[in-house]
TrEMBL record:
The gene is LOC114248812. Keywords: Membrane, Transmembrane, Transmembrane helix. The keyword Magnesium does not apply. PANTHER family: MONOCARBOXYLATE TRANSPORTER (PTHR11360). It comes from the Eukaryota. The lineage of its organism: Eukaryota, Metazoa, Ecdysozoa, Arthropoda, Hexapoda. This is Uncharacterized protein LOC114248812. The chain crosses the membrane at residues 12-41, 47-67, 79-103, 109-131, 138-156, 168-190, 432-454, 466-488, 495-516, 522-544, 556-579, 585-614. The keyword Membrane applies.
Length: 627
């Protein structure tokens, strides 16, 4: 059954402006980090150490994104999205403030961990709010968000350079954190309009939502075809006579009738009176009068016998207790101290051994035994035994710790291990992993190395010109994103062709930048890289989702993010060893170009196979059918 799409919904301009503003400011932590890297090189910090900030940032972001997305689903509502996004923003701000007061060697670690974790929290909330609000314009809104990232990538290099030249390298982090703190009003606008109830087909959990609606009878009034029997209001049913039954009659909405103005209907049927009932023919039925029988007399006499037996047992128990009390008095009066007897005999040892049994409440089956000594060693042994029992006896605190550890292990299994085993068994996961790794590599390596690469070209390019080339890169990115309305109307099966085009362009840009030795070649490489990166970012996720299928995409999504981040971390660690050598930056870009050419070849084959199946093969089958 098809549902009508919500085309008449508004654009929610405050929310749209807040989302675009967040995409302008926050991704600049990675896209504009090359400016900090240039100044770190001037401060004699090793290039591989400064480059580690973006690597740690992306790895932290990829490993925490799946958990933050689950938290966004459970913390949703009018306040949950804003609270979690505000926590993420304060995490980023605190990380930048700490970077201003620590040494240059520790800055990349703090910048990467706190910045990646805070950005992951904010992006999860933004994605959740965008999905819940813009259901029919999701592709266009995502293109607008990417355009905001491109604008931020064009503006922030100039801003950061001005901050560093004015306030110095360390104190520029404080001003930068104050600029990012201005995103807090935009975060306060992240809310979902609960008054507009969207159909269940647009829910991220549509299968579960439809099942719940069927069993709760929510979809019956909206023309859902189900096998569930509709519940009736039993307050309208007449329990005296079927002729007066108004259950299946249409409800008259006239306010003149009694009972419709203050209708306090309930599903619970009213109790029928026992003293006056009618059968189906309208004849009154008198209440049943219980008849006496001989069995009741036998039960009465049996109950008397039980009472007499209980009285006898009680009297015998009282006699036994009195006898036991007399014997206890005799035992107490005749008690003699053991130590007084031991003082008379000199051959007896200093202490006496008494075996004491401790029956713990804990679920320990064996009985713990220890010996009591009437000396200083006795007190030491008893203190040791009591301490041991307190440590090993299960308490509620230990129980809570075990439960939390068990919950964490189950969550770790459901988030990483189980999706990993499921994803590795699917062959479509590996080309998808290569494409996701390509996007991260272009973001974390090509973007970051562009400013530092411009300083090594002969003659060296000034910082102002490098920032201009970064803005040119963002401008070409925006130029490709102008085709977002066309992409939003394009079928998802065609996104892979645009992704292949972006891979080819990015591969050529990497080889061009690897061989750039003058001003003109570097500028052309920045322009080509902007077009390629725009095509990949716009079509990467949709192409992967269409390639693996709508059913397998939720199962491999988290694994795709985590494994691609781990692969990027390994590749960045291996590339960092080349930075200390002469021409190492361009050689690292050359290796990246080789990897991109492999990914391009794989996805080109997949695109050709898709064209053969959808175009050539279907045309041949159509001709055979016509002939």
């Amino acid at each position: 059954m098809e549902f009508e799409r919500i085309e008449g919904t508004s654009w929610h301009w405050p929310l749209l402006l807040s989302v675009v503003f967040l995409n302008i400011c926050l991704p600049s932590l990675v896209l504009s980090y090359g400016v900090f890297l240039v100044h770190l090189a001037e401060l004699d910090v090793p290039l591989w150490q400064g480059f580690g900030a973006t690597t740690i940032f992306i790895v932290t972001y990829g490993l925490s994104q799946c958990w933050c997305r689950d938290a966004a689903d459970s913390w949703g509502g009018t306040i949950g999205y804003r609270v979690m996004a505000a926590i993420g923003l304060w995490t980023i701000v605190i990380g930048l403030l700490v970077c201003a007061f620590v040494s240059y060697q520790i800055q990349p670690i703090i910048y990467g961990i706190l910045g990646g974790l805070g950005s992951s929290l904010i992006s999860a909330q933004v994605d959740a709010v965008v999905f819940e609000t813009y259901d029919s314009r999701l592709g266009l809104i995502r293109g607008t968000c990417f355009a905001g990232q491109a604008v931020g990538q064009a503006l922030f290099p100039h801003l950061l350079t001005e901050l560093i030249e004015t306030y110095g390298y360390s104190f520029s982090f404080i001003v930068y954190s104050g600029i990012l703190l201005q995103a807090l009003p935009a975060i306060l606008l992240l809310r979902v309009n609960d008054s507009v109830k969207k159909p269940l087909s647009f829910s991220r959990y549509s299968d579960l939502a439809k099942t719940y609606a069927i069993f709760s009878n929510e979809g019956l009034d909206n023309n859902y075809y189900t096998a569930e029997v509709q519940l009736h209001d039993l307050s309208k049913k007449c329990w005296k006579s079927p002729s007066d039954d108004n259950l299946h009659r249409e409800v008259d909405l006239n306010n003149d009738e009694v009972g419709f103005e203050n209708d306090n209907s309930t599903i619970t049927p009213p109790p029928s009176p026992e003293e006056k009932r009618r059968n189906i023919f309208g004849v009154e039925i008198l209440p049943e009068i219980p008849e006496e029988s001989e069995d009741e007399d036998e039960e009465f006499y049996a109950s008397d016998k039980d009472v007499n037996m209980n009285k006898k047992r009680l009297s015998n128990a009282i006699k036994r207790l009195s006898t036991l009390g007399d014997s206890l008095d005799d035992y107490i009066n005749k008690q003699i101290r053991r130590d007084s007897r031991q003082s008379e005999n000199s051959d007896i040892n200093e202490y006496s051994e008494v075996e004491v049994t401790y029956d713990n409440i804990s679920p320990v089956t064996d009985i713990q035994r220890e010996k009591i000594f009437n000396s200083f060693s006795f007190r030491c042994h008893s203190a040791y035994a009591s301490m041991r029992r307190r440590m090993w006896m299960p308490s509620y605190r230990v129980y809570r710790i075990k439960r939390r550890l068990l919950y964490f292990m189950y969550n770790l299994n459901d988030t990483f291990i189980k999706p990993l085993t499921r994803s590795l068994s699917c062959w479509k996961f590996y080309p998808s992993l290569l494409l996701a790794f390509t996007k991260l590599s272009l973001t974390g390596i090509s973007f970051v190395l562009l400013p530092i690469l411009g300083t090594q070209i002969l003659p060296p390019i000034s910082t102002t010109e490098i920032n201009f080339f970064m803005s040119l890169h963002g401008f070409t990115w925006v130029c490709f994103l102008l085709s977002t309305p066309w992409l939003a109307q394009t079928p998802k099966r065609n996104y892979k062709y645009v992704a292949v085009l972006g891979l080819v362009t990015s591969t050529g840009a990497c080889f061009l930048l690897a061989e750039a030795h003058n001003h003109d070649t570097f500028s052309i490489g920045c322009v080509v890289a902007g077009f390629g990166y725009g095509a990949i970012t716009s079509c990467c996720e949709t192409a992967i989702q269409d390639f693996v299928g709508a059913r397998k995409w939720p199962k491999i999504h988290s694994t795709l993010e985590t494994l691609s981040a781990v692969l990027f971390g390994v590749f960045s660690l291996g590339s960092s060893f080349l930075f200390s050598e002469e021409g190492g930056l361009q050689f690292a870009l050359f290796i990246l170009g080789v990897l991109l050419s492999v990914v391009t070849f794989v996805w080109l084959i997949l695109a050709l196979v898709s064209i053969y199946i959808t175009k050539v093969r279907s045309a041949r089958l159509g001709r055979r059918w016509l002939s």
